[in-house]
Amino acid sequence: MEEHKEELAVVDFEGKNEDSAEEVVDSKMTDIELSDTLEQLCLSKAEEFHLIGYEHVTGADVWECVSDKYHKKGTPQLYEIVNDILSLKVTQFMNFVTLSMYRGEARKR
């Protein structure tokens, strides 16, 4: 019995073949692209909260909660910000909202 092995070309995120002699240009996100990406992540997390019954949560609320700790520590690496958004739990969010209300920092709606 003969085994068939398929060889797949490794393709990077820009669609160029890794084995090619072309040098991949270092592409960094612009501030606008970064802001849009983070906004989409926050909206995605807000939609997740909507699915479990928290209909009034917005992407801005999620960002306010996640970014609150950055005022104390400074802005972290991008992967840490993404992790903070995607791993945000409802209990963490509700604790933030409750403490913000006690401090009088609740956003006006």
From TrEMBL:
Cited Pfam families: Post_transc_reg
Protein name: Post-transcriptional regulator ComN
Top-level taxon in the UniProt lineage: Bacteria
InterPro entries: Post-transcriptional_regulator
Record organism: Cohnella abietis
